[in-house]
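Propose amino acids for all 213 sites.
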């Protein structure tokens, strides 16, 4: 991957591995934009976007995406958009999962055309598989460390954290299999796989930069 050309770095990760934070740190170090589930869904909600809606905007030559990117800092938070992450469960009921996936894929590809970015999750490894300058990273961790991190970050009991980790692991794997035809655990989908055990998020970001270098 060439950092002197527009690039996309995708961060796939297990819950509790710290991958989302690694993505933030990496984007900061590279002085580029960061996008994840909250920001993509905030973008969808802000502009009420569907695939047909995006095509209409493009047909009208409305540069909605450029306006959005100007609105956020290189490494934004969902709250900069006036969006609480809790709204995820409140997404429009008339839009199917298939519609959301198609819209998100279109949004991500449009984002990449605007310039470099770091994307966490959202099937990025599959969405950008044909991008001429991309790097796909997967971050994993041992189950005990993942559970401890989830307990600490979300103030949960061990029992609740275990249930949450198992539930999200299952839903993410089903989602990836449904829309990409592969498993998110298949290492062939990635250029770099990192075990977070024994490393800080800062160290993991530095390892990714060292790999690129």
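Proposal:
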């Amino acid at each position: 991957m060439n950092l002197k050309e527009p690039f996309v770095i995708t961060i796939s990760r297990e819950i509790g591995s710290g991958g989302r934070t690694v993505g933030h740190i990496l984007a900061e170090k590279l002085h580029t934009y960061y996008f994840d589930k909250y920001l993509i869904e905030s973008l969808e909600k802000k502009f009420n976007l569907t695939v047909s809606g995006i095509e209409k905007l493009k047909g009208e030559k409305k540069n909605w995406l450029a306006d959005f990117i100007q609105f956020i800092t290189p490494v934004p938070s969902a709250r900069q958009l006036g969006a609480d992450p809790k709204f995820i469960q409140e997404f429009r009921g008339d839009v199917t999962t298939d519609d959301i996936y198609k819209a998100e894929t279109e949004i991500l590809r449009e984002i990449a055309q605007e310039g470099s970015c770091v994307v966490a999750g959202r099937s990025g490894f599959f969405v950008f598989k044909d991008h001429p300058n991309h790097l796909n990273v997967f971050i994993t961790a041992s189950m005990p460390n993942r559970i401890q991190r989830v307990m600490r970050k979300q103030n949960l009991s061990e029992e609740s954290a275990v249930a949450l980790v198992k539930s999200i692991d299952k839903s993410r794997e089903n989602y990836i299999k449904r829309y990409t035809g592969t498993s998110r655990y298949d290492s062939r989908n990635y250029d770099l796989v990192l075990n977070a055990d024994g490393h800080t998020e800062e160290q993991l970001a530095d390892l990714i930069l060292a790999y690129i270098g």
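The beta strands are 8-13, 33-35, 117-120, 134-140, 192-195. The chain has two domains: 1-32+117-213, 33-115.
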